Amino acid sequence: MIEKIVLTGAAGKLARRLRAPLSLLCRQLVVADIVPLEATGNETAVQLDLSDAAAVDGLLQGADTVVHFAGYPREAAWATLIPANIVAVTHLWEAALKHGVRRIVYASTNHVVGMYPVDRKVDVAAELKCDSRYGVSKAFTETVARFYYEKFGLESLGIRIGRCEDEASDERMLSTWIHPQDLANLVQLGITHPVAADVVYGVSENSQGWCVNPPFEQFPYRPQHSADAFADRIEAAKPPTAKRWPLQGGPFADYEFVGESARAANFYRASYATFPLPKSRHGND
Ligand SMILES: NC(=O)c1ccc[n+]([C@@H]2O[C@H](COP(=O)([O-])OP(=O)(O)OC[C@H]3O[C@@H](n4cnc5c(N)ncnc54)[C@H](O)[C@@H]3O)[C@@H](O)[C@H]2O)c1
Questions:
Q1: pTM, rounded to two decimals
Q2: Among 8, 21, 240, 284, which residue's beta carbon has the most beta carbons within 10 A?
Q3: Catalytic-labelled residue, pool 106, 116, 134, 149
Q4: What share of the chain is helix, strand, coil (3-state, %, to 5)?
Q5: E runs forming strands in the chain
Q6: 117 DSSP assignment
Q7: Which of 42, 40, 36 is closest to 2 using CA atoms?
Q8: pLDDT digits (tens, 9 = 90+) for 93-115
Q9: Residue 178 alpha carbon, nearest atom of ligand 1
């Protein structure tokens, strides 16, 4: 049994449902949030702001595993995202390194690949195409996690969560939905299964899904739920004028978007054949 797990954002919508399953995996579950929490069972409650380095340092003393679900969960101005999603992450990984934390399992998002068109499948190795400042803040987290693994050996699993609700309720969720139980299973696998600095998609078994997870032999995640069960109800309730999003990020990609979605959908950095070097630099004009 694990001695001590720290769960950040424990008052939040998703993390509060992780408290019971995580408390079974460890002797002490530290539930931490910027808002006050009441501890039950083997929990210890800590109220702190993760953008305070000294507080984070104290929080991680003696921890084996961190499950990091605190953060600002949607698009916002940088002034909001930076303390919650950037500064907090730098403090957390630094403190984890200092205190010999074995692993961090953290909430990332499908919005790190939200600029992919909806007719493409995306696996975990696909280049990132963030659809929002929020998505960029999570891409930062994934990069930090990779750096601390490659440089220092600190393990992590990022879960690119789709939309986590008890039920799927709109067309986009037929692709992105994850049931809270499937998310809890993924977090548990993230703690117990061997990982390096991997990422997985936090989605249930949705036949209309875009995300491709590693094969079962490599990462034994078997979702128990599917958005397909809600497809008829969603179709019947769909207003005739319902917008079809061209990009996987849906409203996140659409918000503030300038120009044609094809620009975002068709740009891939790996495709250097389209790199717009001025002709004179090729020496062939
Ligand atoms: N809800 C979803 O479907 C979804 C989808 C994709 C990713 N995510 C990610 O999952 C995580 C949890 O999302 P949620 O929907 O539960 O959000 P939430 O807002 O309900 O919970 C986040 C928690 O983090 C805490 N928090 C924020 N800033 C903090 C700080 N500086 N210090 C300490 N605590 C702080 C908040 O008080 C809150 O309790 C987030 O990282 C979010 O980006 C959620």
A1: 0.95
A2: 8
A3: 134
A4: 35, 20, 45
A5: 2-8, 26-33, 43-47, 65-68, 103-109, 122-123, 155-161, 163-164, 177-178, 197-202, 211-212
A6: B
A7: 42
A8: 999 999 999 999 999 999 999 99
A9: 3
